[in-house]
Amino acid sequence: MSSSSMARHGPSRAGEAWFCTTGLPSDVVFEVQDMSFHLHKFPLMSKSRKISRMLAEQDEQRPPGQPRRRRRGSSGGNAEEHAAPAAAAETEIEEAEEEDGDEEQLQVSMEDGKSYRITFPDFPGGPGTFEAAAKFCYGVRVELTPWNVAPLRCAAEYLEMTEEHSEDNLAARAEAYLSQAVLRHPGEATKALKSCEDLLPHAEELGIVARCVEAIAARSSATSRSWFGDLAVLGLHMYKRVMAAMAAREDVRTEALEGCLVSYAKATLPGLSRSMRWRRASAPVSSEVEQRDLLEAVVASLPADKGSGSVVTAKFLFALLRTAHILRASDAARAAIERKAATQLEQATVEDVLIPSYSGAAETLYDVDCVERVVRHFLAEEEVGEDEASSSAAITEEEAAARTTASRPSAVAMTQVGKLVDNYLAEVASDANLKPAKFCELALAMPDHARIYDDGVYRAVDIYLKAHPRLTTEERDRVCGVVDCRKLTVEACTHAAQNERLPLRAVLQVLFFEQLQLRRAITGTLLASTASPRARHPQPQPAAAAVRHAAGPSEAWRTTTVQESQTLRLDMDGMRTRVQGLERECSSMRRAIKKIDGRGGTASPSSASSPDAAAPAGWRSRYRCKFSTQVCDSQARDAVVSRASRMGMSP
Asked: Which residues belong to any copy of the NPH3 domain (predicted)?
C-alpha cells in the first residue's frame, strides 16, 4: 500500500474541509461540527449500516432522471461512471491542497445537488474520531490506544459499524482492545475513563464508564500503587465515582483510599504544597471556584476514622486547612478539616501549624484562632476517650493493666501536643498585634499534665514580654501567670531570677519555689538514705504498676521527685561546701555594713547637715535595701522565710 493520508483543503464557511483524494471525485459530504469531509459513499456504506441507510433514503428523495456527477479533469474529458474502489487496501488517501479551479468546480457540483450531504451534529468524539472511523472504512490501519479506544467504540456504535453489517468491523476491534489491553491495567483504564468525559451519554449507555470505574476499583487493593498519580487526570465527577466504587468494595484497604485521595489532592490543588514539588505538569490549572469544589470533594472523601497517619499525615491535613483558608472554602469544610487534623495533632510540627491569616479582618500574622480550635478538638477527643475508659463499673486487675497500656499513647500524645503548643506560642509571641488575652487563652488551653516542665511556655512568655514592652502591670502579671513556677527546671529558674522583664512578684515566686523544691529534694534524699534497699528498690507487680500509672499526674510527679532526689544526694557534699562559703561571705558583708554604719553614727552634728556626710547613712533608703538581723544559717528552719523577707515578701 502506498502512503495514505487525508487532505486538508482549507477554511470555508463551516470551518475546514477534508478531502479524500483517490483519483475519483467525492460524492458524499459529511459535516461534523465545524468540519466538512468530502468522501466516497461505497467504502463507508460497506462498513456503516447507518450511512448506508441514510444514503438510501436520500436516493429515494431525489427526482428521477437526475444526471450523474462527472469526474473532475479537463473541460473536454470523457464521462465515466462513478465506481467504488475494488479493494480497500488499494485506496490512497493523500494529504494535499486542492487547486483553486478544482475548488470552484467542486462548489458548483455541490450547488447543483449532485453530492450527498449528511450532517452529524452530535457525533461522539468530534471530527477527529470521525476521521479515524473514515480511515478504517477505507482500509487504512488505525492504531488503537487507551485514549482513542472509547471514542472509536462510541463512534462504531453511532455509525452501526457492527459485525452484523460487516465482519471484523470497528466495534468488534475496539471492544477486543478495551477488554484485553485497557481494563486489565488500572492506569490504562484511567486514561480511557478520562476520554469518556467528552463522550457522555454515549459512553455511559455502552457501559464503558462503569467498566473502567470497576476495573480501577478492583485493582486498587494491589500492592503496587504507582498508578495512583494517574487519577489526577480525571475530572471531579469521574473521580467521585472511582472513590465511591473503591469505598464500596470490602477488599480495598483504607490505606489505598487515602493514597488515591492524597495523590489526587496534591496533583489538582496548586496551593496544597508550598514547594509545589507534587504538582503534576500535565494537571490543568483550574479556576478558584473549581479548586474550591475539588477541595471540598477531597474533604468529603476523607476517612471518618483516625487512620494510621502514614498516608493522610498531619502535614497533609494542615496543608489542606491552609489551602481551605486561601480558597475561602465553606465553614463546614474548614470545620471538618480542623476536626480531622486534631486527630493527628501530636504528629504535627510548628511549620505545619503556622497558618497565615488570609482574612482582611484579622490583625495577627498567623491564624491563632484556627490553631486554638484544633487544640480544643484534640482535647475534646481525649476527654471522650477518658470518659469511655472510666465508664465501666468494676474491672479486674488484668483489664485495668490493659486499659492503662492502651491509654499510654494518649498520655504521650498529650505531652507532644503540649510541646507543640509551647513552640507555637514562642513563634507567634513576637507578633506585635497578638493580644495578651489571646496569648493566655491558648497557653492555658492545655491541662497541667500536658507539660512535664514549663520551660517551653516560660520561653514563650519571655519572648512575648520582649516584643510587647508597653504592657500594663496587670497584663504582665496575667501573661506571667500562665507559667507554673513549681515546674521550672534549674536552668529556667536561674534565667527567671535574673530576668529584668519579669514582674517582681513572678521573680519572688520563682525564688520561693526554687528554695522549696530544694528543701523537698534534700528531705527526700535523707529519707531515701535511711530506707532499706528493698524499700528503696521495690518490685511492683504488673497490676500494681498499672494502678500506679493510672493514679494521675500527681503520683508521677512524686515519683519523678524521688528519682531526682536520689541524683541530688551525690551532690550534697558540694552543696554544703557552697552554703558554708555563702555564710562566710554574708558574715563579711554584715561586718562591712556595721563599719559603714559606725562611721556614719559618729559624725559631728555640723557635718551631719551636709549631704556628703549624710550619704553613707542614707544609702539603704536610697537603694531600698532591707536586711534582717538574722544570720544566714543553712541549719535554720526558717531559711526560706528569711530569704522572702530580704526580697520584701511577707513570711
From this structure: 225-517
Q: Chain centroid to CA 272: how far?
A: 6
Which candidate, 459, 530, 528, 535, places its Cα nearest to that of 499? 459
Please give the pLDDT value at position 273. 63
Q: For the purposes of burial, counting CB atoms within 10 Å of the CB of 255, is it exposed (0-12), middle (13-18) or buried (19 or more)?
A: middle
Q: How far is CA 13 from CA 10, 31, 34, 102, in A?
A: 10, 12, 9, 17
User: Is the peptide bond between 201 and the residue preceding it cis, with omega within 30 degrees of 0?
Assistant: yes
How far apart are alpha carbons 456 and 357 in whole angstroms?
24
For the chain, the domains span 7-61+87-220, 221-343, 350-390+397-509, 588-599+614-646
Q: Look up residue 153 and give its three cell numbers.
A: 467504540
Pairing mode of beta strands 35-39, 116-120: unpaired
Query: Between these two residues, 267 and 11, which has the higher pLDDT value?
Result: 267
Q: Which residues lie below 8 Å from residue 391, measured CB to CB, with a gap of 6+?
A: none
**Collapsed DSSP state (helix, strand, coil) of residue 613:** helix
Q: Rounded CA gap, 135 and 87, in Å?
A: 14
Mark 599-637 as b/e (b = at least 16 C-beta within 10 Å): ebeeeeeeeeeeeebeeeeeeeeeeeeeeeeeebeeeee
CB 455 within 8 A of CB 430: no
Q: Class of 7-61+87-220 per CATH?
A: alpha beta
- Lowest model confidence (mean pLDDT) among 70-74, 192-196, 542-546: 70-74
On whether the pTM is more than 0.90, the answer is: no
- Using CA atoms, how far apart are residues 193 and 158, in angstroms rounded to an integer? 19
Q: pLDDT tens, 362-378?
A: 688 999 999 999 999 99
- CA–CA separation, 209 and 200 (whole Å): 9
Q: Is the pLDDT of residue 53 over 70?
A: yes
Assess contact for 266 and 291: CB atoms under 8 A. no
Sign for the pseudo-dihedral over CA of 498, 502, 505, 511: negative
